[in-house]
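Team,

Forwarding the record for the chain on the shared tracking sheet. I've put the sequence and predicted structure together so nobody has to dig through attachments.
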Amino acid sequence: MSDSEWITVSEASKQLNIPAESLRRYIRSHSVHLKVKKLGKKYFIHDDSMTVIRRIRALYEQNKSVEEVEEALSASGVPMTFTVTNDDDSMMTVNVADELEQIKKELYEQKEFNRSLVHEFKNLLQEFQKQGEQLSQIVDVVNKDKKLLEENRDLLESIVNNQQAESEVATAEQKVEKKQSFFARWLGK
């Protein structure tokens, strides 16, 4: 918003032909319906609030109380606003409906972002599960290979032991044969 849309209380007083102190009272009593900002000790009124101030003035001229004026403004659909302090310590009145709309928009965007994160998380989880299953299959194959290697080692040891036993038997048979041939020669057979 440009600065030309904001006027001081004294400028508004001249434009509306309402005493400045009445305008300040309206701002204090009905600020939720007015776009105002405060810089230092000065209030600035937005052009959009001029018709609302005229309506407030008309309601007071009908001898309405502060509460009745508030009710009439709310019932007529005058937007509610609230005052916030900016980073530079200036105060600004913000339209509640606009802010709620902005919050709804941001909330919707956050929900969509959350949905996409959940979708990505589910995809990652499925991928991890697939990899876990593949890893489990690999571990099973490794365990089977390990078992086969142990069985082959046992078999190889058995073969080696059998060959050693056969070799020992053959050596023993050769010794027996030599002894027999010695006795056979000695006895003359």
